Amino acid sequence: MPSNSTFDENRWVIQISKNLEEELEDDTQNPVNIFNVPETLMALDPDIYVPQQIAFGPYHCFRPELFDMERYKIAAAKRTQRNLLTLTFQQLVDQFLDHEPRIRSCYHKYLNYSGQTLSWMMALDASFLLEFLQVYAVKEGGLLRRSVTSRMSHLVDISGKKSIHNAILRDIVKLENQIPLFLLRKMLEFQFSTLDLADDMLLSMLMGIYKEISPFKLKQDLPNFQVATVDHVLGFLYQMIVPRLQIPDIMEVEDQIFEEAEETLEDLSYGKQFLKETCKFLLKMNKGPVRSFKKLIAKPIKVAVKLPWKIISNVPGIKIFVRPLELCFSQDKEDVKPEDGGSSSRNNIDRPPLVEEISIPSVTELSKAGVCFLPANGDDSTISFDPKKCAMYLPLISLDLNSEVVLRNLVAYEACYASGPLVFSRYTELMNGIIDTSEDAELLREKGIISNRLKSDEEVANLWNGMNKCIRLTKVPCLDKVIEDVNKYYNGRWHVKIKKFMKHYVFGSWQFLTLLAAIFLLGLTTLEAFCSVYRCSHLVYDIKDRV
């Protein structure tokens, strides 16, 4: 909200009264779709979210450093006025004024502007935006070229070589810089003979800018939607890029949870299973000294098997070996598992994930473990891991100087707008997890998964590593399954198990080292006592003489 020094109380009262008197339909017909970027994201890099060249809409309209672009908006408005078929530009503004309540309902923030100011603002912004987007209009496989005014010629460049063109392109897709798409549709409606022709033109413009700025390859099976249902340019990009996932029915999820919980209760813990297998092994060996040894330890082992594992694991001396035993003999459990009783992550599908569950080895580590990375044609839903082929499939992505702005603003839009799982945010978390260094980015580039148009692989790694802040943790079943399967495969490799064992329980455990030192000293003491009684020096000489 504007500061108190510029806040007009009378206008606020008039606006509130007017809104109460309006006979609008149900509020669900006009949901908010243009938001302020959350502070947690804005604090990371404000330039990614705040327009740098031109402002669209009311959030940044009168910023002094952007106000110079108003003359180009006026030039675009003059061109629009010549293309209007049945009314003047003033009448077009009046048409927008009739939709003032709907315009205001699109914005999350209170707009401290009069209806006239807001209508003129939208008319000028829509004129410039259509003027800019027309170079991307695609018709019958080719570009539908229109002449560009001399004043606009140095701003608009279909080849994308001009830096100011890319700067404007980035500003167009920023969350706080959106204007309702129904205004562009209405403006085109008065420039074409029918509404269908206007919709076709607007759709071709949107498809053109998608092909220009989207980091992802165009889908083969395009989603079927009407232009009238699109909120704004960023919303169109989101609908094109992010797949719509089928959320499992709540009852089905609960049934699955109960079934898996029942199976979990039937399973023995690793420690008791180890003791049980030891008993079976000893029963098969019934010869010589083993028989006497069995009689000696049979009762203690029988008691140990019957005792709860928690009691056994807390016995001094045994407690140190409990976790290493579980680590070495486990097949499916990883360090990323929450310590909540050993239940699978699928049992917690209706709970937000823990931070540890996002952990995943890097591309380099997975490659050394035998995982092959292959490109997949499609969106985030095509991400998968095939344990039989040891192959991880990732969608193709092309990164250039505009990609970071697009990716981050899509994440911000999803965090504010999506009511279900944050699919795209989860994808960025996955990429952030597997790409740590330039070597990881280089490997994915060599595999054809990343097309790098930046200066170096280091910039690619920095791009993904910078996207490590999310609004809220969420579960996306298809991606979480991939993360779980990859961790399961990686942690099941013997060299990984040995590495973790040595790291945590040898080099990183003072208890284990203390035990080894105590055993070593005990051995030396025993050897010293033995030699003091049997005179080891004479035994050594006797052995030498015999040799």
Explained architecture:
α20 (438-446) packs across α21 (457-465). The longest helix has 25 residues, at 510-534. The chain is elongated, with a radius of gyration of 33 Å. Residues 1-5, 249-271 and 331-350 have low confidence and may be disordered. It is mostly helical and 547 residues long. Helix content is 55%, strand content 4%. It starts with 8 loop residues before the first helix and ends with a helix. The chain has a 3-stranded mixed β-sheet with strand order 3-5-4. It has 25 helices and 7 strands.
Strand order of the largest sheet: 3-5-4
Q: What structural class results from the helix and strand content? A: mainly alpha
Helix share, percent: 40-55%
Cα gyration radius (Å): 33 Å
Kindly state the mean pLDDT as a whole number?
A: 77
Tell me the major beta sheet.
3 strands, mixed
How many E strands?
7
Ranges where pLDDT stays below 50 over 5 or more residues in a row are 1-5, 249-271, 331-350
- The percent range for strand residues is under 5%
Estimate the global geometry from the Cα principal axes: elongated
Number of discrete helical segments: 25
End-to-end separation: 97 Å
